[in-house]
Every structure is written in C-alpha cells, then in structure tokens.
Design a protein that fits this description.
seven-stranded antiparallel beta sheet, alpha+beta, Alpha-Beta Plaits, Calcium-transporting ATPase, cytoplasmic transduction domain A, Rossmann fold
Length: 791
C-alpha cells in the first residue's frame, strides 16, 4: 500500500497511526504534527495537475512562444486535437505537458499534430532545441537604426510644420528633398520596420485571429498598421501629414523589450535541459551474458544493472553482487554514506562512492530521480505569473479599445466633424492606449535584475520570480548543504599522535568523504602500501612495517580486533549529536579513534536569526537528527523523505506565504511547491530547475541579499505597472475627447515607454561585502549558460 502522506510504498509491516499507514517514521511524525489537514492539502494539490486525469502524459518543447498569450493559444490548439485530454504549457520555459489517449494517438505523433500556426513541438527525449537568435538580433539592430532614421527625418521636416515653428515656404530651397525624397525615405524605412522587424508581431496577431482570440499582438499590430496605412494614403494628398514615426517608434520599442524578455526565457530553457538529462539516464544492463548500454526506458523488471565506482545508480533495485558505499544525500538529504551489500535496496539517483555493484530491478522499473522529476513537472507546469494576468487583461483591453476607437470616430463624424478629424481622433485613441508599457514593465525590469544578480553571484531560473511577494510568513530551510557545508571534518582524535598520522597515511587511498577528512590530519608525504579497501567500512594498509586499519566497528569485527571498553566509553562520552566514529589500530590492536562530523556553515546562526525576522523558521531535513540546529529555529521536521517535504510545504502554505531554501534533488519538490524556492550552495540540476533563484557558492548571507533583491525589483515592477495604469487612465479619455492628435498620442505613448524603460534599467544595489568565513565567493560570470554545471 502507498504511504498515506507521500505516496511511496510502505514497508511490511507498515508504520501505523490509527487507520493510516506510512512508509517511514518521519511521515508518521509529520501527520501527528499537522493532523489530517495535511492529507487534504495533498489532495487539493493533486487535483490541480493532470496526474488525476485518465491517459498518459507526454512532455514537449514548444518553439515559437513569444508572449504569455502563447500559453493559451498552444493549449487551445492541443485541446482541439482529437485524443488529447488535457494540456498545460509554461511560457517561461517553453514547455508543455500533454495528457493523451494512447488508444487514439501515439506519443511520437504529438509533435506533428501540435506544430501549427508557427509553433514547433518536439518530444523531451529529443533534447532542448538550440535557439538561433541571429534573426532576433538582426531585427533588434535594424529596428533601432531604422526607427532612429525615421524619427530624425520627422524632426527635420514634419514636426516643425506640425508644431507651427515653420511653414512650407521655409523649405522652398530644399522643396524637392523635404516634400519628395524625405516622405519616400520614410515610406521605405517604415515598410521595412513593418514587414520585417515587426513580422513576429504580425504572425502572433494572425495566429490569435485564426484561433479566435484577440491577443496583445492584435492591438500592437493594429496600432502601427493604422499609423502606417494612414501615412501611406496621406502621401498622395499631404506628404507632410504623416505619422510614420508613430509606427516606427512602436515597433522599435516593442522589439527591444521582447528581445530582452526572450533572453530571460532562453536562460530558463537551457537550465531545463539539465533535468532532462538527469531524468533519462542510461544503464549498463546484463542480457544473455553480455553487458549493453541502453536507455532507462528500455529496462525490464528483473534486469540486472551494473554500476561502477563514481557512477549514479539509475534505478531502484536490490544488490545481487558486490558491496559499496552509497551516498543518498542527493535523494534523501542524509549526509553520511551508507554501506550497501547483497540483499539490500538502493535508490535510483544515489551515487556509488566506493566499490562496484550489480543490482536487480524489482517487479516495476522505478527511479526516485524520475519520481522527483514528475513531481517537479506537475508543480511547475501549473504556474502562472503577473505577466500572464496582464495578458489576460489585454484580451479584455484589446476589444474594448477597438470599440472605443470606432465609437469615437463615429461620434465625431455624426457630430458634423470632417472625416479627417474623425479618423485622427479614432487613430489617436487607438495609439495612445497601446499597452506596450504593460508589456515592457516586467521583462525590462527582470532583465536588469538578472544582470545585477549575476554580478552578485545570484542566478535567476524562474521568469516570474520578481512577481512574488517578498514578505513571508514561514521560511523552511534544509540542513545538509545549506546550514551545514556537506563536507566532513575531524572534530576529535582520541589516542596518541600516531593515531592521526597512521590514519591519514592510509586514508589517502580512499575516496570516501570521511577518509578525505581524515587524510588532511597529516600533511607529510608518507603513504601506506598494500592497500585493501572495504567499501563503506574502512581501509587497511602497511606503514612502517605495521598493518594499519582505519574504519568502522564492523570492519574491526570482521578483522577480529577487539575494541577496548575504555576507548568505546571515551568515544561515546565525547560524541554529541551526529558524527562518524572511525577506529584506528595496528598490529591487531585498536589504539584510538577519530570522530568526524558535517561542518556547520560559518555565520549560520546570524543568518538564521535574521531570517526569523522575516517569518517563522522551520528546519526541514532528510537527516535523522537536527544535530543542534534546532536551537536556532522555531520548528523541526527531521528524517523527512522528498515527497513528504513537498506535503509539509503545502501544509505550511495554509498558514501564509512560504519560502524554501535547499540544495539537493531531495529538496526539488519542496522548492517547486514553495511560494519562493532558493537553491543554495552547489545545487543539483533538479534543485536548480525547481527553484526560483540559485545562489552557488559558500556565503549563506547571500540568501538575505536575495530576499532584499527580490523586494527592490518587485517594487520597480509595481511602479512601472502603476504608471502604466495611471497613464492609460488619463490619456485614453483625453484622446476620446479629441484633445490629442496622433502625433501627441505617439509622443505620450513613447514618453510613457521611456519612463518605464528608465525605471526598469536603473542600477540595482550591490551585495554587501564581507568574508564568508570560507573565502569570498566570486561573482557568477555573465555568460553562464548552464545551471547544471554548478552542481
């Protein structure tokens, strides 16, 4: 039976509490702490995903998404396809989750069925598409240059006459240039802007019309096409009454904003490639007496998979031969490696540090990594941000503005005004209400903030990070790798000086984390010979003619060496909390012991104290013991599996806004579930993709800067959006009453956009200096392209 809390299989017999069964002690304790309400939170969250629907899930990349409206368009295209039961898309990462009926559609047929109206789909197994931004860059440069030329010609020959500073007679000496060549040049330059630079906008507007939805592209296209068309007609009547600069300015500003926004989205898409590689590893499987490498999807129940030292275990299974030291820190948060031998279970996604294993797959091919990836997809694909809400507003805004513009023109015409005045009033209403300020506010501010973050060692992985509330009711934080370094260090050496010297010489030959810590006790070049490694237990070697053993109690029991009771008592008295005891002996006698422990991160107490000012601090760890960290937090949940971490976050969210700080793949579901996810340290690909923000390095203080950094950026976004609302609230009524000409409307619209750009691109505050206690972290290079590389 599955665990009532996290859904993982329960042991036999299961852990019970009343009528409920749990997979582990931690899940049961979580239930006892929160009560039955945590089950309701889990059920409510599951109803928001496609996992409860019939059919199979497929995950695809969607190329061609250029605004949040594309989410609705691609979902509509998918749902109009027979056999597709549900669709959920993410504009931020250009991905889609499709639930389909395998009786009607094969997964391989989905890309061709969904590649319509300018969108191109491909299965996740094909890898992330490599985006060629050369055309976008060419459009950006062309748009800026041509719009500048159009504006310059307008300033020289059109604006002075419109403003009353000059008359036609003033241009008599250059009449041919002013009234013939200049208007023709304006026509040519603006035509290139409209039909080349603005081609993506025109394509988006046409796509919206074809699927029956007026989107932001429709209003943008109608705005600059109206100005362009009016100016083309006026060329034959009055070559000075032109508004080409209106169309050119609109196109240039929109193109620049979308280019910056696209760079943000591409960064998120590139990081998503890391989770794909982690989700679909290969395995070395033994069939017909020979080992072959195959994809994990090709594995069958009962297959035997060989795993060598240093490799990742691809699937869950039972060890059938070999013995090894396995690190499950990636999957469970437990920092100490565990010895796995014949008959014991291993978890897919854990790392084999020492030894070689052959594991047998059970009745089902399962991988904890794949399970976590599915949870991550289900959580992230349902996210929407402020930009999506703005686009939903624009879908109402667009038809309203169109109706208002038409009514204004009709009103002026019926009131006896000339047709030209009616058309100009209608065009002014249309132009002045262009929602490009809404479209620029978020992407420009976000792009500026991302650049500042990279300079200060902060990587943004979520497009809607800065739309989230910077104030939190609860802050959940992981222990291993976050409050602690995840690195082992020696805390106690019991015995003579030779204990440390001999142990260091022998442990130099082992790659175990505990061995690496002990090897640093002696910097002398002395090394042992005749090395014999017992994976997960210890090492034997010969030094100065003595046979030296360093390892666990199990190793010495195997060797038949007795541990003196006095030494065992001394070790137990000095061992507080979480630690690893390595006994050291030679010549068949145990002479001493060395205690190692996961080191606490410098200044973590001060960081915890400051975090508690923001909200209630909850320690959420997969390790069995909190090891003294509980004294500086408000609440502790230890020994918690990844699936239960996500359930706890959902329950904490019932009390308010929740931030989660973690580093491992075991934290990925919780990071994705939280209102704000921060991956710290050396985050894994899963954790980096699940989080909204990644802080590589050793300085835990950067978490505090990140929270302030989010607050500043969010304030600027709100300032820009507030200005946009105020501007439209004043400018549209003025245009409807005929007080604004198209020229003035364009200038006001341009001024509004410039104000938004200035506010968005203001310099961000830098991070405070200080020593991290472990050396100053260097800023992240601006050309960083893969979050996975930080793991």
């Amino acid at each position: 039976m599955p665990c009532k809390l996290c859904g993982l299989p329960t042991p036999q017999p299961p852990l019970r509490d009343g009528e409920h069964e749990f997979c582990c002690f931690a899940c049961r304790e979580v239930y006892r702490h929160f009560g039955a309400g945590i089950f309701a939170a889990r059920q409510d969250a599951s109803r928001s995903t496609a996992a409860t629907r019939p059919g199979l899930d497929a995950y695809l990349w969607i190329e061609g998404m250029h605004c949040a409206s594309c989410e609705i368009l691609t979902e509509k295209i998918a749902l109009d396809t027979p056999g597709i039961l549900a669709a959920s898309t993410s504009y931020a990462t250009s991905t889609a989750r499709i639930t389909y009926d395998p009786q009607q559609i094969q997964e391989s047929a989905l890309p061709s069925l969904l590649s319509r109206y300018g969108y191109r789909a491909r299965l996740r197994s094909e890898g992330a598409p490599e985006y060629d931004e050369s055309q976008d860059l060419l459009r950006l440069v062309s748009g800026g240059g041509l719009a500048a030329a159009v504006m310059m010609l307008s300033l020289l020959f059109i604006y002075p006459i419109h403003a009353g500073f000059a008359v036609h007679a003033d241009y008599e000496a250059i009449q041919w240039l002013a009234f013939k060549m200049a208007p023709l040049a304006l026509l040519v330059f603006t035509s290139i802007l409209v039909f080349y630079v603005a081609l993506p906008i025109l394509r988006g507007a046409w796509t919206g019309i074809r699927v029956g939805m007026l989107n932001m592209d429709c209003l943008l296209a109608l705005s600059f096409l109206s100005a362009y068309s009016y100016s083309v007609v006026q060329l034959f009547y009055d070559p000075i009454d032109l508004y080409f600069e209106v169309a050119g300015t609109l196109i240039a500003v929109i193109t620049a904003g979308r280019f910056l926004e696209r760079r943000v989205r591409l960064r998120a898409t590139e990081t998503l490639n890391a989770i794909m590689e982690a989700w679909s590893p290969t395995a070395r499987v033994c069939r017909d007496g020979e080992y072959t490498v195959c994809n994990i999807d090709e594995l069958q129940p009962g297959d035997r998979v060989a795993v060598q030292q240093g490799e990742t275990i691809p699937v869950d299974g039972v060890v059938r031969s070999g013995q090894g030291a396995v690190s499950e820190a990636l999957m469970t948060g437990e920092p100490l490696p565990i010895t796995r031998s014949i008959g014991e279970k291993v978890i897919g996604g854990s790392a084999l540090l020492e030894g070689d294993l052959e594991i047998e797959i059970g009745a089902q091919v399962e991988s904890r990594m794949a399970d976590l990836a599915h949870i991550l997809w289900n959580t992230q694909s349902s996210r929407t941000g402020m930009q999506a809400r703005i686009d939903r507003l624009s879908r109402v805004f667009v038809p309203i503005v169109l109706v208002l513009a038409a009514l204004v023109g009709l009103f002026f015409h019926l009131s006896g005004a000339p047709m030209e005045k009616a058309l100009l009033a209608s065009l002014a209403t249309l132009i002045v209400s262009c929602p490009c300020t809404f479209g620029l506010a978020i992407p420009l501010t976000t792009a500026t903030a991302i650049g500042a973050g990279l300079h200060n060692g902060i990587i943004v992985t979520s497009a809607d990070l800065f739309e989230k509330a910077p104030d939190f009711d609860v802050i959940a934080i992981d222990k291993t790798g976050t409050l602690s370094t995840g690195d082992m260090s020696v805390v106690t050496v019991i015995g003579s000086p030779a204990v440390g010297t001999y142990a260091a010489a022998v442990e130099q030959h082992s790659s175990h984390p505990v061995a690496k810590a002990i090897a640093q006790l002696d910097a002398s070049p002395a090394t042992a010979s005749d090395i014999e490694i017992h994976p997960g237990r210890g090492v034997l070697g010969t030094l100065d003619g003595r046979r030296v053993a360093v390892g666990s109690r199990v190793l010495f029991a195997t060797l038949g060496w007795t541990i003196p009771e006095a030494l065992a008592t001394q070790v137990s008295q000095g061992l507080h909390g979480e630690g690893v005891v390595s006994y050291v002996g030679w010549d068949n006698r145990v002479e001493g012991a060395i205690v190692t422990r996961d080191r606490a991160r410098p200044n973590w107490e001060q960081v915890a104290k400051r975090l508690r000012r923001h909200g209630r601090l909850v320690l959420l760890t997969g390790a069995e013991r909190p090891s003294g960290y509980q004294a500086h937090v408000d609440e502790v949940h230890a020994g918690v599996p990844p699936e239960a971490k996500a359930a706890i976050i959902r329950q904490l969210k019932t009390a308010g806004t929740v931030a989660m700080i973690g580093d491992g793949s075991n934290d990925a579901p919780a990071l994705a579930e939280a209102d704000l996810g921060i991956a710290f340290g050396a985050p894994t690909a899963l954790a980096a993709e699940a989080a909204d923000i990644v802080i590589p390095g050793k300085q835990l203080e950067r978490v505090l800067y990140a929270i302030d950094y989010i607050r500043v950026t969010r304030t600027r976004i709100r300032q820009s959006l507030g200005w946009s609302l105020a501007y439209n609230g004043v400018a549209i009524p003025l245009a409807m009453m005929g007080y604004l000409t198209p020229l003035v409307a364009a200038l006001l619209m341009s001024a509004s956009s410039i104000l938004v750009v200035i506010n968005a691109t203001r310099a961000m505050p830098g991070i405070d200096g200080g020593d991290g206690g472990e050396g100053e972290d260097q800023p992240v290079p601006a050309n960083l392209t893969s979050i996975g590389s930080t793991a």
